[in-house]
Specification:
Blueprint: H1 2-26, E1 35-39, E2 44-51, E3 54-62, E4 75-84, E5 87-94, E6 99-108, E7 111-118, E8 123-131
Antiparallel strand pairs: 1-2, 1-8, 2-3, 3-4, 4-5, 5-6, 6-7, 7-8
């Protein structure tokens, strides 16, 4: 009887462990990236939000005194669709050269890494973002 009770408890605890693991991974949704992010250079902020069935990023702030062709209100990330847990792919617009590139985003904790690539991924440029208050 003791063995049966021990096995039931072990099964119950294993079940709880699985539920906890599922709950932890269920939080990795596309809307986790939603919000305003500050670029590592401190020169700009982008607000990511759902748009249709994807995520888009719009420039919402440029540091005063920064010379750039970018304009507040410009969409710089668009059609970013989930490709896995905390990962998206779509398009990234670079206001500096006026070109649109293949874009990727990865969220790890409080850090968002964006990447724009050209020539089939041979040439890429990355930026790191942190959540803005």
């Amino acid at each position: 009887m003791t063995t049966t009770l021990t096995m039931r408890r072990a099964g119950w605890l294993t079940g709880l462990g699985l539920l906890a693991a599922i709950a932890a991974t269920a939080g990795a949704r596309a809307d986790d990236v939603a919000g305003t992010w500050l670029r590592d250079t401190g020169a700009s902020k982008v607000k990511f939000a759902p748009c249709g069935g994807a995520v888009c990023g719009t420039l919402v702030w440029i540091k005063p005194g920064v010379e750039t062709p970018a304009k507040v209100g410009q969409k710089v990330f668009f059609d970013m669709k989930p490709t896995g847990p905390n990962a998206w792919a779509g398009s990234a617009f670079n206001p500096e050269d006026g070109k649109t590139y293949t874009g990727k985003m990865n969220l790890s904790g409080g850090t968002l890494t964006t990447q724009g690539c050209a020539m089939g991924g041979l040439i890429c440029k990355s930026s790191t973002w942190t959540r803005a208050n």
